[in-house]
Specification:
With 166 residues, the protein is mostly beta strands. The chain has one helix at 2-24; strands spanning 37-39, 41-42, 63-71, 74-82, 89-97, 112-118, 125-132, 139-146, 156-160, 164-165. Strands 2, 5, 6, 8, 9 and 10 form a six-stranded antiparallel β-sheet that branches. Mean pLDDT is 85; it is low at 1-31.
Length: 166
Amino acid sequence: MRRIARISLAAATLAACCGPALALGTSGTAAAVSEPKILPFTQILRRCDFSEYQYVHGGYYGRPSGLLRVEGGELVTDIQIATGTPNSRYDVKLIQVPRSSAVTCNAGDAGVAVAPLTTDAAGAGSTTVRGPIASDATGVWVSITRPSPFSHMPEEFYTTDAVFGL
């Protein structure tokens, strides 16, 4: 048992001291990748220009989280949800700003990347959304919605707390 502990400690020490040096020796031909940003979410329904809808409140208990990064001229976000509605489909939108409140942010619109997220029987799911960076984009935010079968307003919604600069 002590031998396993010593070997594990030695491996961790080696990785901590030599890991950065080994990473510096890698090829410089890789595409530019930014540091990932942690995306905090809240139950606020927003318009495409990031303004809030008045008098609309959330009532569900999903716990979405995500990371946002730039990879070779593309925005990439990895989204996970825990304790969402079981066996449901969510729409995840990566929306670039500035954006007029008169412009929609549907799939296929300029500056919008969309991907589905389907939860399992426990209400957990994940997806990755990728899209090109618009030439005039200064920031980005993420919207997660579960469509309602009886209304144009989503039944469940989560949006990022802030617009993240590019």
